[in-house]
UniProtKB/TrEMBL annotation:
It comes from Actinomycetospora aeridis. Signal peptide: none annotated. This is Caspase family protein. Pfam families: Peptidase_C14. Residues 3-253 form the Peptidase C14 caspase domain.
């Protein structure tokens, strides 16, 4: 008899806090679907433990078994050597719990190719396989060896990584694969290759931190009606839930028309079974699939096609989670067993909006205004909603999904204006998650889309997903046509307050880009030097906000695109002929109409660009810092939005940094000088010079490098050189000696400090170690103290060291 078995892996590394909860929640919901679960966390989620557990699953799997492999934790990458054309550009992997153990020059990680090979071995046992990866840069992880996407930089033994990669690529099973994806495995991934995945508190799961993908997926799977869903429908439901709280686009790859954990397929989206109870036709799972009053369906008996002797149904109410249907053309008694409801025109999946407090006297008026739109539904609680309307003090404040206000302190919007702004946010959410065409509507990846910032010197800076931009920056969207036929490019800006603007307004249905040609939105027009970024008038500017530009490349012009940018209530034109045009009109009116048969479809591809816009001008750039032998800084973007400490955790007020181990082979036998620069954001800059006599060992308790308040975050720089007995201490050098000098924490300001120190120290002091310590992990101090790395040493060119990070105030 076929079995259902699931392997659940949770690797808690660094500042992650929700891993164990993710495994527990996913395990419980899968057991509700009949799975036996094998849960591996802590030391069982080591590199060797993960591979061993996966191989155990493979060995014990029989034909027709249903299997699930779930991973939650960090995803990362290591850059391949630039001077070897045969080597990969990126080595991508998941991060086990023993990632910091590099003893024996071995990399404790699980490469993407290893995951792909294990998945191939599993699908040779059974074709009913589901892989779920809730980690950064997860797309293409468990696929085939053809694509290596962008991911985070993590320093691991490169020789070992390259050897393992070469061995895996030579494996006969992987080498036999000629397609980009395993056709027998459904793969649920947290985000695209260029994106980050997030964890945050989940109100639906008791307020504890969880991976955002995991929380959304558990919410769908926990509904009794989910057994009737296809993976394509799960993707739509999960993506909607995720995009409402973070800028992250989950994806489902592979045979997406399969029903959950089954080999059975259903090509039609939105088809629901109908039940008759006490003479009334009902559809279960109304909340799950977003049924709304006014939705219309065609009821089709088993074995018959929609359109023959139709009985139509309209949703007249939602009772106990069921949609109540009023029938035309027949009665409930006429419905045969197995009758299905095919959508004719249904709500897109109304977005949840909270109106608080529920006792506010003005609440009924807001409710009445929102009831006029199919875009939203009203819920009682604020967490996880598209928006929250907060009533009080004789007025209303509208908060977006991140809790940021949309009105200034003195704004007095009317209920109608609030309702229109909510509809605007809902349309924006749908446009953000607009997906590329599939099947006959799929466009090959033959238009390269890139995003650039025009620097002050006129040069271009290539931007990546999640880039931090500033008011006054100028950006360019570049589209290069590699196809042999003309392509049509449209760009829609999803603004900070949800306003939609067609940026390619000279040809609203799509800019024509000839073969081999390039069009630059924001610069192809005469005299243009990029699209200037502005902060909307009246929008509070207390914090940065997320913005999205959506590029659509198509093989023909797209009618109806302009509908998206129209304010107010939009009605159907009745003249649109293309599927993508009808889809865009669906987004505008808030309801999805049943597709009609037509001629050749428009093929299209959607490329979103998410960025963070700061309300002020760009801070001045600093000089280029020297290259440090060991550099542990994350991307400079973390300076702009400082990670918060864990909920309920108080950041340390003091931090002690000690040198726990030091090896400088080039200075063996001679006296050593250490110069330490600590620049805590918002605090006084600290400088210290330490001298070690020839042959002296470090004290047992470590050598004190720095102590004091860490500020919002702490920049640390250490130089190492021979102690010649002369030269001033770092604290006495002119550029650092100003009393009370503070660091504002900006990259430019810190760079100027580091460069000044490097120039003053001269060529005998080598830049040895550079770090940026952040509050989300208590600056690395943990509870009391923490060694960095946990075991062994950090290695760089001519230097190896380890630090002890101590919170002296911890109990």
């Amino acid at each position: 008899m076929p079995r259902r078995r699931a392997l659940l892996i949770g690797s808690r590394v660094g500042a992650l806090r929700g891993v164990e909860g993710d495994v527990a929640a996913m395990g419980d919901v899968l057991e509700g679907h009949g799975f036996t679960t094998d849960r591996r966390t802590g030391s069982a989620a080591s590199a060797a433990g993960i591979v061993a557990a996966y191989r155990e699953l493979v060995a014990d799997t029989a034909p027709d078994d249903a299997t699930v492999v779930y991973y939650t934790g960090h995803g990362a990458r290591e850059r391949g050597p630039r001077d070897d054309p045969t080597a990969p550009t990126w080595l991508q992997y998941i991060v086990p719990t023993d990632i910091e153990d590099v003893s024996g020059d071995r990399a404790r990680c699980v490469l993407a190719e290893e995951l792909s090979l294990l998945q191939l071995e599993l699908t040779r046992r059974t074709t009913n396989v589901t892989t779920i990866l809730d980690c950064c840069h997860s797309a293409r992880m468990s696929r085939t060896p053809e694509a290596l996407p962008r991911a985070l930089d993590v320093d691991l033994p490169r020789t070992d990584l390259l050897r393992r990669w070469a061995d895996l690529r030579a494996d006969p099973l992987l080498a036999s694969v000629t397609t980009d994806s395993n056709p027998h495995a459904v793969r649920v991934v947290a985000c695209s290759p260029a994106e980050l995945a997030y964890e945050r508190p989940s109100a639906a799961l008791g307020g504890a931190p969880h991976g955002v993908l995991t929380a959304a997926l558990v919410g769908v799977l926990a509904d009794a009606a989910s057994a009737d869903l296809t993976w394509r429908e799960v993707r739509d439901l999960v993506r909607s839930a995720v995009i409402e709280v973070v800028r992250q686009r989950p994806e489902v790859e592979g045979p997406v028309d399969r029903l959950l954990f089954s080999l059975e397929r259903r090509a039609q989206t939105g088809v629901r079974p109908v039940r008759v109870v006490d003479g009334v036709a009902l559809m279960d799972g109304a909340a799950l699939f977003g049924a709304a009053v006014g939705d219309t369906y065609v009821l089709v008996a088993p074995g018959r096609a929609a359109g023959a002797a139709e009985i139509t149904a309209v949703v007249t109410g939602i009772v106990d989670g069921r949609a109540v249907l009023a029938l035309t053309g027949g009665t409930a008694a006429d419905l045969a067993g197995g009758t299905a409801a095919w959508p004719r025109e249904v709500a897109l999946g109304a977005r949840p909006v909270a109106i608080v407090p529920p006792t506010a006297t003005s609440r009924p008026e807001i409710v009445a205004e929102l009831a006029r739109t199919a875009h939203v539904r009203i819920v009682e609680e604020a967490p996880g909603t598209l928006a929250t309307v907060r009533l009080g003090g004789g007025g209303a404040q509208l908060l977006d999904a991140d809790g940021a206000p949309l009105y200034g302190d003195h704004a007095t919007p009317t209920p109608a204006e609030v309702a229109e702004d909510v509809r605007t946010l809902a349309r924006a959410a749908w446009v953000r998650e607009l997906a590329s065409g599939t099947g006959r509507e799929e466009l090959h990846d033959d238009v390269d889309v890139s995003w650039l910032r025009v620097r002050e010197d006129g040069g271009d800076e290539v931007l990546g997903q999640g880039a931090h931009l500033f008011v006054g920056d100028h950006v360019v969207i570049r589209a290069r046509n590699r196809a042999t036929r003309t392509r049509y490019v449209s760009v829609v800006d999803v603004g900070l307050a949800g306003r939609l603007e067609i940026l390619t307004s000279s040809e609203p249905d799509g800019i024509s880009v000839a073969p081999t040609h390039t069009y630059e939105v924001g610069r192809s027009s005469p005299g243009a030097s990029g699209l200037p970024l502005r902060w909307p008038a009246g929008l509070p500017d207390g914090s940065p906000r997320a913005e999205t530009m959506v590029t659509i490349a198509a093989n023909a012009k797209i009618d109806g695109l302009g509908q998206l940018a129209q304010p107010g209530v939009v009605t159907r034109s009745g003249t649109l002929t293309t599927r993508i045009g009808r889809l865009l009109e669906d987004l505008a009116v808030g309801r999805r109409a049943r597709e009609q048969a037509g001629g050749d479809p428009v093929r299209y591809r959607v490329v979103p660009f998410d960025f963070v816009l700061h309300p002020g001008p760009r801070p001045p750039d600093g000089p280029s810092e020297p290259v440090f032998a060991i550099d542990e800084r994350p991307d400079d973007a973390v300076r702009l939005v400082t990670p918060a400490p864990p909920d309920g955790d108080v950041p340390t007020r003091r931090l002690v940094v000690r040198l726990d181990a030091l090896d400088v082979p080039g200075l063996a036998g001679g006296p050593v000088r250490l110069d330490v620069l600590a620049a805590p954001a918002g605090e006084v800059v600290r400088a210290r010079t330490l001298r070690l006599p020839a042959g002296a060992a470090l004290p047992a308790e470590g050598l004190l490098l720095d102590e004091g308040g860490p500020g919002r975050f702490l920049d640390l720089a250490v130089w190492v050189g021979p102690d010649t007995g002369d030269g001033e201490d770092l604290a006495d050098l002119p550029d650092l000696a100003a009393p009370g000098r503070r660091s504002d924490g900006s990259a430019g300001a810190v760079a100027r400090l580091v460069v000044a120190a490097d120039e003053a120290l001269g060529p005998q002091a080598d830049p040895g170690f550079r770090a940026l310590l952040l509050p989300d992990d208590r600056f690395g101090a943990g509870d009391g103290s923490r060694r960095r790395p946990t075991a062994g040493v950090l290695r760089g060119d001519g230097i190896a060291l380890a630090l002890a990070l101590v919170d002296p105030d911890a109990g």
